[in-house]
Every structure is written in C-alpha cells, then in structure tokens.
Amino acid sequence: MRHTLSIIVADEPGELSRIVGLFSARGFNIETISVGESLDPRWSRVTIVTPGDERTIQQIVKQCERLARVREVHDITTRPHIEREMALITVSAKAGDERQEVLSLVSVFRAKVVDISHTQLIVEASGNKEKVDTFIELLRPIGVTDITRTGHIAINRLSARADANAA
Amino acid sequence: MIAQQEIEKRVATSTAPEEEMPTGAEMLIRALVHEGVDTIFGYPGGAVLHIYDELWRARDRITHYLVRHEQGAVHMAEGYARATGRAGVVLVTSGPGATNAVTGIANAYMDSTPIVVITGQVPKHLIGTDAFQEVDTVGITRPCVKHNYLVREARDLPAIVREAFHLARSGRPGPVVIDIPKDVSAERANYSRLDHVSFPFSTQLASVEQNLTLEAVRQIVDAKRPVLYVGGGIVNSGAVDSLLSFAELLRLPVTPTLMGLGGFPSSHSLCLGMLGMHGTYAANMAVAESDLLVALGVRFDDRVTGRLATFAPHARVIHVDIDPANIGKNVTPTLALTGDVKQVLNQFLSILQPQSKERLESWWDQIRRWQLSQPLRFSGSQNQIKPQTVIRELHRLTNGEALITTDVGQHQMWVAQFYPFTRPRQLITSGGLGTMGFGLPAAMGAQLALADQLVVAVVGDGGFQMTNQELATAVQYDLPVKVLIMNNGYLGMVRQWQEMFYDRTYSEVDISVAPDFVKLAEAYGAAGFRAERPAELRDVMEAALAHKGVAVVDVVVEKEENVFPMVPAGADARNMITGR
C-alpha cells in the first residue's frame, strides 16, 4: 500500500539529503517527494509518498525519527486526509478539433490553460494522483510532449466532531 | 532577516574589542574542556593547523596522542570509550584525514560507541571548488553517524560541541562528526559559555508503561522454556547487576551476544555461552526450543538469528531496547518495551515476588543434556599449537582478569568461546562492522584509560598488518599493551568458508609471506616473542605478559583449524555443524 509521510525537519542545509540518504541506504522507495516551508518557517515539511507494508512503514517512521533534526513524522494515510499534486503538461494540438478536445478535457478536469501557441498548449492540472494520472492518459492520444509533476503534498482533514468536543 | 541583521550588528558593537574575543580554535578547546575532555587522538594537517596551535597551548589540560594513521585514532578513541563509558575524541584534518577516519566512525556507529570526531575542512570560500584536500566530509560520513555538523560560524561552536557530546552519549550512543572549515577556526567571536543548554531537537525517552512491564513479568514468570538473550545494551546502560539479580531470581538461562559478553558472567551456572553463528550448541538449541525469548539490549543481528523464518520458531518475543528503530526491524516482538534496559529490569525486579529455587527444572534438565552432548571442544595436537589452547592459556596466565581486544575472524571467535569474561567492558571487539585492524589501536585506547590494567590485543596475522604501524604510537606513549598474534599464515575465516562452502578452493587467502613479527616489533622499539611448538607456548606467553613495555607475541598456530560449532550463514540454528 502507498503511504504518505509528513516529516517536519529543521530548515537547515543538508537536512533533506539526510532523509533521502536514509531511504536509499535502507532500501526504502520514494515515489514522490516535495519540500516546503511549514507553519513555522524554521521548520520544513517534507512530504514523501512511499510504498510498503505496515512493518516497513513503521520502520521508515522510526528511522526518520532517529534523525537529530527531525521533529516529527506522521503517516498521513492513517487518518482522513487531503492529497494534492500539480502537473504542467505540454500538449501538441493545432487549432481546430485537437485544440477543442484539449479544452473540453481541461474543462472536465477543472484544469487551466496557462500557455498557448499555434501548435501547442501548456495546461495546469491539480488533484490527487489518480485524477492527474487520468487526465494525462486522456491527453496522451492527442500528443503529450512534456510533463512535470510536483509530487504529493498532503494534510489531515479537520474533524468537525473534535472541534465540537473541544468547544 | 532584516531584524536578524540588526540584532547581529547591535551584538557586534556592544561587545569587547575584537582582539579580546577568542578564535574558533580557542573556543573549540574551551568547549572540549567544558565537556570534561582530557584526551584526544589525532593527526594534524593543513586544515586543522589553527586548532593544533591552540591545542599546544592547552597541553596541560588536554593530552593529545599522535597516531600513525587516522583509522588508528578512531579505534583508539573507541577503545578508550568502551573501556570507560566516556566519550572518545578524535581530531583529524580534511580530505584524506577524514576519509581515513571513516572506517573507525562506521565501526563506532555499528557498535553504539560514543565518540566525537572533529575534522578540519578547507576554508568556506573554497568549499565546492575541488580544493586541495577537500572532500565532502559531512556527506561521506552522513550514513554512519548519529549526527554531523559543518560549522559555518565560530560563534556556533560552543553550542555545537555541547550538542555533539549530548547526542554521542545519550540514548543509543554513537559517533558524531564536527567538520570545521579552516577560516572558522581562525575567526574571532564571542564565546558563550553554555551551562544549561536545552536541546530542542532531542526527545526525552519516556519510561515504559506500567501495564507493559506487568504483562512482560507475567509472561516471563509463566514461561516454561524461557531464555534471556542479552547484548551490548546491557553494558551501555550499566544494567549488569540488575540483569544478574533478575536472572538469578527467576533462574533464567542467559545467552549473551558477542557484544554482550561480560554483561553476564560467563562462568555463572545460568550462562549458556554465546549465541549465534559460532555460539554454543546449548545456547542455540535453547533459543530454538524456547517458548519465550526475552531480548535485552539487542538488535537481532543476522549473525545471531541465522535464517529469520526459523529463528526461535516457538517463542513469543519480548524485546527491550533503547532504540525504537531496533524494535520490529528484523523480528516483530509480541511485546515491545522501548526504554533503557537497566530501568526496565529494575521495574521488573520491583514487582517480582520471590520464586521457587527449583523452578524450570525440566527446562534446565533439557539444557544440561545439550550442554553435555555438545560442549565446546577441539582436538589436541602434539606437534602444533592449537589456537584454542592459546586462548585457554591466556585465560589461565591472566587469571581471567585481562582486558581483551580483538580484530575480526577466527581468533575473535576463539576468544569469545574460550576466554570466559566475567565483567562488563572486559572484551572490546569489532562486532557489527567486523573491522580487521581494530584490536591493537583499541587496546591502546583502553590501556591509556586504565593504566594499571593488563590489556591484551588478540589479533590475526591478517588484521595485525592493517594497523601494526600503531606500535610506534604505543612505544612513544609507553602504552604497554601485549599483542598476541594467532599466526596461521592465512586469512583464516575466509579460508574456513572456502574449505566448507567452496570445495577447498583457497582463492587469495595465503598470507604466509609476512614480515618476521619479532623483528617487526623490535624495529618499532617493542619486545618480540615467538612460540612455534606446544611445549614452549606457556613459557613464551608468560615472559611476554610479564614484560614491562609493549610486547608482541607471534604464536604460530595450526594452519587449517576451523571454528566450530558453526551455523552456516542464513541457516536454521538446529542444523549447526559441530565439527569436520
């Protein structure tokens, strides 16, 4: 099963390579990785999507927690959560039917056209992995010439019930 | 960012004139003294010249031991640390100085030894330019340290040194590297003495929950065929007395790992001897047939477990370890207690009721049958010295009280089998990494920490030649270690595997072209001894051990002796090979 790990690590030089190095040294896989500032700018949030059974994931979490500059590691997947990834896709489509087909897919997937020329478009799509995958698959027959994807970011859902209890 | 610069400007203008501020090198020395450091093993070079200059001025407070190769420095620091429980300190230069130290750092990482290694680095403005003697030390050492630092500003040094020692010593101990660019060691800054630093990054280990200890004790008391499997964690946590009380109270069989030897007295009637690939038949059978394995301060290394699927197949497993990542890594326990093993054992003891002195009688009957059917044994010889005899003789001549260090290989296993260790920190061996050349420098580090202790490095003729240049260091500082070479002219353990698993194809294991070790010792200013025949062994060893200074004994042993019993790598312990 794929798990999404959220790792809060000090925003210091070299800390990301410590995490990535740990994964490769211990034979864990990284499907996607994305890094950015967290609520407190002294700490970065690293989001890693990794496949593995329960035991492997537990081991990854514990190994990451051993790193001196890692403050916390959460397996986002264990609770309700929202995942998003963004993709920029270059599609070859001349004016006419091809371009209309792209535009209708863009509309269905709530994507955006961010650049256009006589022969090509760049579209921006976001959503969970399955949505972005499907969007790209549907564009492929028209002529996808380049793809760049951010990898997942994720956050746990708010719990209305917990809020009510707190109040 | 702007606010930060503003603060820095104000701090800079409000302090004393620049001349009165210490350099990075001075700050480093002060911070080391503050940590209680009085001993450093090292080797100078361009990038650490400022530090060595300062070290010379501080020589009344810190004694520096000049080694002959940086690997030796780290092994000495490890010997020092493992003999005393204090953190060992190493100082080496950039580039090759740092890379030569890596083997020692990796060794300390695998064997959980607290050491702090300070490496020089090229000046900051040259980093990344492939400068002379530049290497990415932080990158190279990253996978084999608990943490490492590239110091960017001298004013950070006191806090970094403080945290480095804290990390090295706390939790599961291990090595920490501090990489200091040359300009940082020259730069002047304010020294902030840090008496009460809190470490925002380190988490406090909570004590184990009461219901878990209660459940563990219930399972242990109820077990019909329990075994205690104890490792280096017992030694690191100082749990020896607690373990002894606990095992005696419940009459539990105890089997130590290689790293656990001495953590429970080998001569004790409850001790089954070492577990694992070259462990005793009784220990391996007891674990294989046990219904409860209590794993204390261990990590289920493959040299212990063999094939995981058939390891202790009938047993529930209670695993106690300070490192959460060790729990569930190789074997999933039925009960996991993450914590300091001494505290956990004391919690066990506090809730245990007095027990019957005859408990587990049928289990012990079975164990005694295994012990009698396959004791550790070897065949004697009239003409050649048997390596096992050498260890037995060493044990007799030293009244079992010597501190022993070893390299890696057959001699190491014979030491583990035939020298019964009775106190913690009595055996200092390269367990996890298996580093040839560890024995001599480790013995020297232990010797300088414990001046009155007889320290013997038992080494092979292969490993000895990897670090034998440290004899010069031993002579220079009058560290009167005794080096016992088990000389069989082979890389013995590799030869044994080739004999047993590769149809006796002895591929590249003949090292019989070697220096005359007696002359080599003498060339270094040490005393050399040699024993070639069984009849002269005792006298030669007695003379060497009685020698006041550094002594090397070349013992020519039977060339093709094998270590038995043996569980082949990845095999089921019950299929152990007990002899040729």
How would you sum up this structure, described in words?
The complex is a heterodimer of chains A (167) and B (580). Chain A folds into 2 domains: 2-79, Alpha-Beta Plaits (2-Layer Sandwich); 82-154, 2-Layer Sandwich (Alpha-Beta Plaits). Chain A is 34% helix and 39% strand. Chain A has 5 helices and 9 strands, in the order E-H-E-E-H-E-E-H-E-E-H-E-E-H. In chain A, strands 5, 6, 7, 8 and 9 form a 5-stranded antiparallel beta sheet that branches. Chain A starts with a strand and ends with a helix. The mean pLDDT of chain A is 94. Chain B folds into 3 domains: 14-186, Thiamin diphosphate (ThDP)-binding fold, Pyr/PP domains (Rossmann fold, 3-Layer(aba) Sandwich), CATH 3.40.50; 210-373, TPP-binding domain (Rossmann fold, 3-Layer(aba) Sandwich), CATH 3.40.50; 387-564, 3-Layer(aba) Sandwich (Rossmann fold), CATH 3.40.50.970. Chain B is built from 23 helices and 17 strands. In chain B, strands 2-1-3-4-6-5 form a 6-stranded parallel beta sheet, with helices on both faces. A 6-stranded parallel beta sheet of chain B has the order 13-12-14-15-17-16, with helices on both faces. In chain B, helix 9 crosses helix 14 (341-351). The longest helix of chain B is centred in the first third of the chain and has 15 residues, at 70-84. Mean pLDDT of chain B is 94; it is low at 1-16. Classes of the chains: A alpha+beta (167), B alpha/beta (580).
CATH topology of the largest domain in chain A: Alpha-Beta Plaits
Low-confidence stretches of chain B are 1-16
Give the overall silhouette of chain B.
globular
The overall pLDDT average of chain B reads 94
Q: Give the distance, in angstroms, between the N- and C-terminal Cα atoms of chain A.
A: 36 Å
Q: Give the class-level CATH name of the largest domain in chain A.
A: Alpha Beta
CATH classification, class level of the largest domain in chain B: Alpha Beta
Low-confidence stretches of chain A: none
Using only C-alpha atoms, the radius of gyration of chain B works out to: 25 Å
What class, by secondary structure content of chain A?
Answer: alpha+beta
